[in-house]
Design goal:
Elements lengths: L5 E6 L2 E6 L10 H16 L5 E6 L4 E3 L4 H4 L4 H20 L5 E5 L2 E3 L1 H8 L2 E5 L3 E3 L13 H9 L1 H10 L2 E3 H7 L4 E3 L1 H16 L3 H13 L7 H12 L3 H11 L10
Parallel strand pairs: 2-3, 3-5, 4-6, 5-7, 6-8, 7-10
Antiparallel strand pairs: 1-2, 8-9
Helix pairs in contact: 1-3, 3-4, 4-5, 5-6, 9-10
The structure holds coenzyme A.
Coenzyme A binds next to α2 and β6.
Length: about 260
């Protein structure tokens, strides 16, 4: 598929999706959100893709937020619709993908940009990255899941402070908060993401998909995560990956998972 606002590249089991609006600091307009949905969907359905990495083009920004120029004149109904559509199309969609998604946060991750990074399964940042939810400085609140995912990741008090002050934190603070897992120099960012992706790829993609489902259940209202875990655990026993993984262990050899 060809895209105007993003670039999607496959290599060695990894699909790298790059948001490519550097002149607008990769701000998420409607078309970009739709293209991201399509690219994530395509990569998730591609059996060769074992890990997805998302990043921003240029050296300055991952994503500097939702495109403010698109919603500045919206009314109440349009505002609600914007958040609902965006959450369904991109943010919830990414969080619930069965393929692991790593956010390579290579600069500003603000508003919708941080919300996108938080929808990913985990985050790695470059040392120049700056993160924040500045929406209250614009007279709105985060609408792409930020009020829910930020406290899940950093705790309620820190999330409250970040949202109320609309301030930015640097990469080291984000690591200390638990918002990102690692911080490296910018030139080391993609190599580190790829190194971690290659470790993930050695394991059963089927089991990883089920683990994502079980972990996510802990954060969903009305879901008993323990029950989801039991169900997903049981299902693993019916997979070819389970047969291969346990057989390989007993035969003292490296597993070659078929991914089924
Ligand atoms: N929506 C639309 N356009 C954006 C944008 C956004 N969220 N963030 C940046 N841009 C655009 C700027 O308007 C500018 O476009 P122009 O050159 O056509 O005027 C371009 O990207 C470069 O941004 P600029 O502000 O000149 O860069 P800077 O280095 O001076 O500042 C930021 C960087 C990130 C501090 C600043 O761009 C900013 O505050 N952006 C908005 C962040 C925000 O509030 N996001 C939440 C949205 S809900």
């Amino acid at each position: 598929m060809s895209y105007e606002n993003i670039i999607s590249n496959y290599s060695n089991g990894i699909t790298t999706i790059t948001i490519n609006r550097p002149n607008k600091l990769n701000a998420l307009n409607k078309d970009t959100i739709q293209e991201l949905h399509d690219a994530f969907d395509e990569a998730n359905k591609d059996s060769e893709t074992k890990v997805i990495i998302i990043t921003g083009s240029g050296e300055k920004a991952f994503v500097a937020g939702a495109d403010i120029s698109e919603f500045a004149d919206f009314g109440v109904n349009e505002g609600g619709k914007l958040a609902a559509q965006g959450q369904a199309l991109l943010f919830d969609f990414v969080e619930n993908l069965g393929t692991p998604v790593i956010a390579a946060v290579n600069g500003f991750a603000l508003g919708g940009g941080l919300e996108l990074a938080m929808s990913c399964h985990f985050r790695i940042a470059s040392a120049n990255a700056k993160m924040g939810l500045p929406e209250t400085s614009l007279g709105v609140i985060p609408g792409y899941g930020g009020t829910q995912r930020l406290p899940q990741l950093v705790g309620k008090g820190k999330a409250m402070e970040m949202v109320m002050t609309a301030g930015m934190i640097d990469a080291d603070t984000a690591k200390a908060y638990g918002l990102v897992n690692h911080v490296v120099e910018q030139e080391e960012l993609m190599p580190l993401c790829e190194k971690i992706a290659s470790k993930i790829m050695r394991n059963s993609s089927v089991a990883i998909g089920k683990a994502i489902k079980a972990i996510n259940a802990n954060y969903k209202d009305g879901k008993d995560g323990y029950k989801v875990e039991i169900k997903q655990f049981g299902k693993c026993f019916g997979t070819e990956d389970f047969v291969e993984g346990t057989t390989a262990f007993l035969e003292k050899r490296k597993a070659e998972f078929p991914g089924r």
